[in-house]
Specification:
Elements: H1 11-24, H2 28-63, H3 69-88
């Protein structure tokens, strides 16, 4: 196992985490690890999305190319129809 670090939390939060961990059949350490990993994943995903948004914005500024709302609606309707059709054939 990797090196462990100490996390200082209030007694109130520790009690709450203990109760949640007990209900789920996990230890507080396991619960804290899962929550921190999920939060880190979410933050990293947000950073990647922001970077992609910035790349798209820069591409728009360079090219001026856009997609019309009608085109987007048609594509969304096609995707929805495909999804509905796929669900009906299962």
């Amino acid at each position: 196992m990797s090196d462990r670090k100490t996390l200082l939390i209030s007694e109130d939060l520790e009690a709450r985490l203990s109760a949640i961990a007990g209900q789920s059949g996990h230890t507080v350490d396991e619960l804290a690890d899962a929550v921190l990993r999920a939060h880190a994943d979410e933050q990293e995903r947000g950073s990647l999305e922001k970077a992609e948004d910035e790349r798209r914005w820069q591409r728009y500024l360079e090219t001026g190319q856009t997609v019309s709302l009608d085109t987007v609606r048609r594509k969304l309707h096609t995707l929805a129809d495909d999804a509905t059709g796929s669900a009906e054939t299962r």
